[in-house]
Amino acid sequence: MRGRPLGGGSGSDDGESPGDGDLRGRLRAVVDPPVLGVAVVTAAYLSVFLAATDVVGGSTRAAVAVAVAGAAGFLLARYVGERAALRLTVVLFAATLAGYYFAIPESQRALFSVRRVAIDVVSLLTGLSILRLALADVWVLAVAPVPTFLVGYLVGRGRHVAAAGAAGGTLAFLVLTGDAGGTTTLVGVVGVALAAGLSTLSMPGGIRDHGDTLAAVLAAMVLVSATLTLLPAGAAQPWGIDRGTPTLESSIEADDEVEVVGPTRLSPEVRYTIESPVAANWHAGAYDTYTGDGWVRSGEQSPLDGPLDGPPGNATRVNVTITAETESPSLPAPWQAVDVRGPAAQTARVDEHGTLRLAEPLGAGESVTVESRVPDADPAALRSAGTDYDPAIEERYTQLPESTPDRVGERTEEIIAASNAETPYDRAVAVERYLREEYEYSLTVRKPDGDVADAFLFEMDAGYCVYFATTMTAMLRSQGIPAQFVTGYSEGERIGEDRYVVRGQDAHAWVKAYFPGHGWVTFDPTPAAEREETRTARLADARAAGDEDVDVPASEPARGAPSIVPEAGVNDPSSTTADVPNDSNGTAATGGDAADAAAPGDTAVGARQEGLTRGAVGGEARPSGDGSPIPSRETVAYWLVAAVIGVTAARRFGVGRRARRAARLRLPWVSSDPATDARRAFADLEYLLGRRYRERRAGETPRAYLDALRLRGLDERALAVGETYERATYAGTVTRAEADEARRTVRRLALEATPVLGRLFD
To answer: Which residues of 260-276 are buried (b: 16+ CB within 10 A; e: fewer)?
Structure first.
């Protein structure tokens, strides 16, 4: 069969393979310059897929599958026509998705209805990370080879621009899921640009005939692709303008994804009043997938059809009433909430981690009653719980990225060995105590590069709850102990018997470890006393400043009384979980219930020392206060690209030249000899008339031109300028006064023609 030549020339539409099968021709298709661009954009989207498998496992399998698919596509280009190749790609995609479906446990397949799949596809295109999918490693293994097969096939056919388009489309999909960051997106766009540009250069006369169009298209591609990284709801927002330091509450209330950030601040506004017979950390969400720089909550939600079973061990049943003081998407309650009563019960849902979720936010003033079963196992029972973990729990909650440095586990083993801890419970207590005693508490930290847990252990000396909880969870997982990263709120301020007011500054993160026969047990590695001191100071500052919505009537301090006085012994950092009974929520947590520290600029004990605060890395001093944030490298890069494109476009379309001439028409300019000034005045007049009426035709004299326009309402003053020009050009007898008058006339005509400004001359 005969088909399209390898050089990319036209061929028949029947999609038949190349006729000569020349090996040299196929090799030439690989070494053609446009292949460089195809390779760049292909590497960009594959890096995203492999980054996902680094998190969930299976990088080696995915890399092998992708390599085989690409090679197969390239080799089949000799024998298979394009239409057949497209059909084969569709069949391959359907087969791999079927394999993904059957890899899902039967107990979860019921969730994968046609409607559920459609919802997931739409969610992926609006910012749902692929890490949230069930068996994300299998999904990547199923999907990644398909576009790579097509790219390899098109390269083998010499269709380099089409190959770059296929790879670019795959990358665009990953941009929409939020998994492709700004840098990766820009690299991919550069790859597509290279493929298109080098293909144009290789065409006879291509750059001459299409150079301007190519430059404009490529410039638009770079700018638009960088801007589009703002659209996904996921993580891809590095090109945006820095909107300032985020609050701690906003950084951990990111629904299904939590990204570890750098400096943060506290919000003292009241969020809830909670009536509860137990004081507790109010659980709002749990996360299972650690990405190295954040957390993802994977899995689906299902309607709450009835009360949940609750923890497997002994537990105390309590009823908690939560009143939202502002609109709230969360349902903070003692772990474990098993049922909801009230209007919210009709739409309540439960996720795969046993957390109750609201389908619609609570409005300000709305209340909901939650029933919780609070575990009450004591340390002795937890020590004897053993390690007979459910395989599904062990696999899901011991996950660590494949790139996690070995020294995280090695340091954890050293800590456990030094404490002679033998049981998982004692190991968790040892890790918790180590972090609370060896690291300081600060919100003025710089986000580290690389793995957060590794950087916190070995490069940082301070952090806040997100750093402490992330590190402890990773350390426990390195020892095979199932652990969750948990977010919610600490106890808050007690304003009466069994009544608490919870503020935004009480947002908190902690750890839950799993013990067979007892379920999830709380550990809090963040230093408690420092959290309480800074929370107290932050609230005092807000009250002193007269900030609104920081109190409810029952929490307002009496005149002349201190704002908040912590109860004696509540936050004693010397207390540990190893030798004391459980706290009131029935867990092994001991760090108190205070919130995290104040942000830079807040008055807090230990947070301000001669205008400097401790940095996150290496303990270096960094200025504190509320100065303007330094733009990120990505932000600077984006605006540099935008500036280059703007300057190039301005030069291409003569924007600068027109702007200079417009300014010269309306502003006085330095005089020359009268004849030269008269000729310049007429040239400016001719420019104005050409924009308003028409340009002077070839061979048309200035007088004939002005006479023709006179019939269309030409201002009589323009005729005087024409007469001055004629005397200067043909007689050379123009005077200084006549030349200056011609200049003033043209300037006045230009000002009168200027929008808005011209009204001043009516």
So the answer is: bbebbbbbbbbbbbbbb
Going by DSSP bridges, is the β-strand pair 301-303/499-503 parallel, antiparallel, or unpaired?
A: unpaired
Contacts of residue 512, Cβ cutoff 8 Å, sequence gap at least 6:
286, 335, 483, 484, 486, 520, 521, 522, 523, 587
φ/ψ (deg, to 5) at 460: -115, 160
Instruction: Tell me the mean pLDDT in the region 734-739.
Output: 87
The pLDDT of residue 157: 86
Can you read off the two tokens belonging to residue 231?
Answer: 């659209």
Residue 216 and residue 223: Cα distance in Å, rounded?
11
Largest CA distance in the chain: 115
Residues 733, 751: Cα–Cα separation, whole Å: 29
DSSP of 15-73: -PPPSS--HHHHHHHHHSTHHHHHHHHHHHHHHHHHHHHHHHS-HHHHHHHHHHHHHHH
Q: Tell me the Ramachandran region of residue 12: left when phi exceeds 0, alpha when psi lies from -120 to 50, beta otherwise.
A: beta
Q: Which two tokens stand for residue 349?
A: 């849902």
The span from the CA of 125 to the CA of 173, in Å, is 7
Q: How many helices (H) and strands (E) does the chain have?
A: 25, 20
pLDDT tens, residue by residue, 518-575: 999 999 999 998 888 888 888 888 889 888 888 888 888 765 545 444 443 333 333 3
Read off the DSSP letter of residue 731. Answer: I
Torsion, Cα of 103, 104, 106, 108 (10° steps): -170
pLDDT over 90 percentage in the chain: 29
Say what the pLDDT of residue 24 is. Answer: 56
SS3 of residue 368 by DSSP: strand
Q: What is the token pair recorded at 574? A: 């010397």
Q: pLDDT at residue 83 above 60?
A: yes
pLDDT of residue 428: 97
Q: At what angle do helices 114-124 and 160-177 cross, to 10 degrees?
A: 100
CA distances to 383, 419, 482 from 387, rounded to whole Å, are 10, 19, 10
Rg (CA), the chain: 35
DSSP 93-146: HHHHHHHHHHHS-HHHHTT--HHHHHHHHHHHTTT--GGGSTTHHHHHHHHTHH
Phi then psi for residue 422, to 5 deg, are -110, -35
Q: Residue 472 corresponds to which tokens in the numbers above?
A: 């402890």
The predicted pLDDT at position 639 comes to 57
Distance (Å, rounded) from C-alpha 136 to C-alpha 22? 41
424-438 helix and 406-418 helix, angle to the nearest 10 degrees: 100
> Measured between alpha carbons, how far is residue 598 from residues 247, 445, 508, 562 in Å?
10, 12, 13, 19
pLDDT of residue 382: 95
Helices (H), 600-697: 633-652, 655-666, 674-692
pLDDT in tens, 273-316: 999 999 889 999 999 999 999 999 988 788 888 889 889 988 99
Which of 52-56, 200-204, 369-373, 559-563 shows the lowest mean pLDDT across its residues? 559-563
Full-model pTM: 0.66
Cα–Cα distances (Å) from 540 to 246, 373, 499, 546, 561, in that order, read: 21, 35, 21, 10, 11
The whole-number pLDDT of residue 199 equals 73
Q: Using the predicted structure, report yes or no on whether residue 630 has a pLDDT greater than 70.
A: no
Report the pLDDT value the prediction gives residue 587, as an integer from 0 to 100: 42
Strand order in the sheet with 483-489: 282-287, 483-489, 507-515, 519-523
